[in-house]
Write a structure and sequence with these properties.
Strand content: under 5%
Shape: elongated
Largest sheet: none
Number of helices: 4
Structural class: mainly alpha
Distance between the termini: 7 Å
Length: 83
């Protein structure tokens, strides 16, 4: 069940990352970074990592790498022990 939840939140996070990159290019309204961090915290670090690599978005911000990396480790351990 945890895996299904993480997959769903990960896909949502990937979509938001792509949307924010599109808006950054078109100079439109942006997704607040607070929301991006919230998505990472609630289970979307794998989608965030995919979005960072696929869209080359937020790759110059070290704190995003730390948050995404830490989230990936945390949720990998959660899946190992509880999933």
């Amino acid at each position: 069940m945890l895996g299904v939840y993480l997959a769903a939140v990960g896909l949502l996070t990937l979509g938001v990352w792509g949307f924010d990159k599109f808006r950054a290019i078109s100079r439109g309204w942006r997704v607040p970074e607070r929301w991006l961090f919230t998505l990472i915290l609630i289970g979307g670090p794998f989608g965030a990592l995919a979005g960072m690599l696929l869209f080359r978005h937020k790759t110059r911000k070290p704190f995003f790498w730390i948050a995404v990396g830490g989230g990936c480790v945390f949720y990998s351990l959660a899946l190992f022990f509880f999933g």
